[in-house]
Amino acid sequence: MTMLSQIPADGFLAELSLDDQAILRGDSRGEMFAFCEGLNRYGIQLLAELHARRSERLELYGVLFYLKALNSFQGALLLLSRGMSVESEILSRTALECAIVLGAIAADPSYIDTLEAAHRVHEQKQARAIRDLLRGDTAGSFGPEIAKAIDEAASLRARDEHAVAAAAVKAGLRAEYEIFYRGASGAAAHATVGAVSQLLRAQGGVLRIHIGPDYDKVPRAFAVLAISLPASLRFVGRIFRREDALQAGEDFQNRWNEIIRPFDEQARR
Questions:
Q1: How confident is the chain (269 residues) per 10-residue block, as mean pLDDT?
Q2: 217, 254 Cβ separation under 8 angstroms
Q3: C-alpha–C-alpha distance, residues 214 and 16, integer Å
Q4: Which helix (H) or strand (E) holds 268?
Q5: How many CB atoms lie within 10 A of CB 212?
Q6: This prediction's pTM
Q7: How many CA within 13 A on the CB side of residue 235?
């Protein structure tokens, strides 16, 4: 038997009650929020101190991917603050992917060529698909200049493609990729059975569809979130030769390991 749990009038857009806020930030969850808020403050401070030279591709891409990682980290934390644990993993996955790319270009600056080529491949595939549509009934919807630009883009030749798994190996983040990035793919980021099954709860023999804050999954969501920014700090430290950022990334990672250790031990039992 499956039943819907009580649905708030505005869903997740409804303000959390004081009781919900107390539960969400209570005990170890409150420590996790405080950790990520401190990590975010340091991340913003570092961003303000970075100066990328326009002539240096590594520095420019370093700042841009770091900013993308920081933005995604903040977005995931905002979702978590409303109890949207599963949804936060989508942005946490993006933050981790940015950290992987930062690690890849820090280890091998020539990987930037692969990233740029991959962008051209993406544009080429999209242009070809649109060009095929132009040959059909939708051709009149586009002007001749647009049609010409699409045709030119479709004829481009790009060889290299960026693969996150290969970049993770370069970055030394293969374990993080396999455990957190791929895990979030099947459990949150895509329309999969694994993702929608997290909306179910078994209560007294009744299978209920859960709507609203999900406090049980907060530690798991934090585990996906907190792995990204310390790694990004370390890689930005390498790119800009900032020993303080390197050390901060290590310190934040060690602190997080202490916070999450009880949950890891509990999961192994």
A1: 50 65 70 92 96 92 97 93 86 95 97 89 75 61 61 57 86 93 80 80 74 76 90 97 97 92 65
A2: no
A3: 12
A4: helix 243-268
A5: 17
A6: 0.83
A7: 34
- Report d(CA 70, CA 229) in Å as an integer: 7
Nearest C-alpha neighbor of 36 from the set 221, 245, 172: 221
How many C-beta atoms lie closer than 10 Å to residue 242's C-beta?
Answer: 18
Please list, in sequence order, all residues whose beta carbon lies within 8 angstroms of the beta carbon of residue 126, skipping any fewer than 6 positions away.
Answer: none
Long-range residue pairs from 262-269, CB within 8 A, at least 24 positions apart, any chain: 262/28, 263/28, 263/219, 263/223
Q: The tokens of 101 are what?
A: 């790319």
Inter-residue contact 226 to 69 (CB < 8 Å): no
Residue with tokens 């401070």: 45
Distance CA 58, CA 226 (A): 25
Written as six digits, the tokens of 131 are 């060009």
Cα–Cα dist 217/166, whole Å:
30
- Helix%, strand%, coil% for the chain, nearest 5: 75, 5, 25
137 touches 70 (CB < 8 A): no
* Domain residue extents for the chain: 2-109+163-268
- CB-based burial label for 128 (10 Å; 0-12, 13-18, 19+): middle
Number of Cα atoms under 13 Å in the Cβ half of residue 237: 16
